[in-house]
Design a protein that fits this description.
This protein is an alpha/beta fold. It has one domain (2-201): SGNH hydrolase (Rossmann fold), CATH 3.40.50.1110. The chain has a five-stranded parallel beta sheet, with helices on both faces. The chain has helices at 10-23, 35-39, 53-65, 95-112, 126-132, 140-156, 164-169, 184-201; strands at 2-7, 27-31, 70-75, 113-119, 161-162.
Length: 205
């Protein structure tokens, strides 16, 4: 049985239980630990929440130094990178730093895992997000820019990508339960989408 390990933000935490159940008879499942801490505040990444690209790079570096190995590594970061300051609109992780971080993440991940797969960052509806979140802003245009940067990096490293962005966006604004997270039904469908991708890429007989 092949094993899947997930490093991702709160979106992955929320579809995670569905994904684990859907993969149960064909894949082992695990993720960055600390789910209880992560759920205390999904906007402030702790524990199982991978956070921004700097945090993912730091985590992978520590794990690499400990000799950690993965079979199938599913990764995502982006939503925390594009957080914009309310005072000067600066990004938590500027685009050039995001690109550099992803390049370092890719190099490490390919050393540590048999297979690496990137999951695209899900969409932000600017008007919904910024009306409901008062501590920082996010903008749809930044999701597009950072997804494009990620696509370029993964293409250069020949790392495959899952387009969870387009899949989730197709459900429209009713898919959101708050400023950026999804309803239970959409979480279940996201898990089914990822399961289908893994089944097609790693068929079991």
């Amino acid at each position: 049985m092949r094993r899947v390990f997930v490093i991702g933000d709160s979106i992955s935490i929320q579809y995670g239980p569905y994904l684990k159940d859907m993969l149960a008879d064909r894949f082992g499942y695990d993720r960055k630990s600390g789910e209880e801490a992560a759920l205390t505040n999904l906007d402030n990444p702790m524990g199982a929440n991978g956070g921004d690209s700097s945090m993912v790079l730091e985590y992978l570096t520590l794990e690499h130094n400990h000799g950690t190995r993965y079979d199938i590594l599913l990764m995502n970061c982006g939503l925390h990178d594009i957080k914009s300051s309310l005072t000067d609109s600066s990004k938590q992780v500027p685009p050039d730093d995001y690109r550099s971080n992803l390049q370092s993440i890719a190099k490490l991940a390919q050393k540590m895992a048999n297979d690496v797969i990137w999951i695209q960052t899900t969409d932000v509806v600017t008007e919904i997000h910024n009306a409901r979140c008062r501590s920082f802003h996010r903008f749809e245009v930044d999701v597009l820019q950072y997804n494009k940067i990620a696509d370029q990096v993964w293409e250069s490293f020949k790392i495959p990508r899952m387009d969870l962005y387009s899949f989730s966006r197709a459900f429209g604004t009713s898919a959101y339960c708050d400023h950026v997270h999804f309803t239970e039904e959409v979480r279940r469908l996201q898990a089914a989408y990822i399961t289908g991708y893994l089944d097609s890429r790693f068929p079991t007989f």
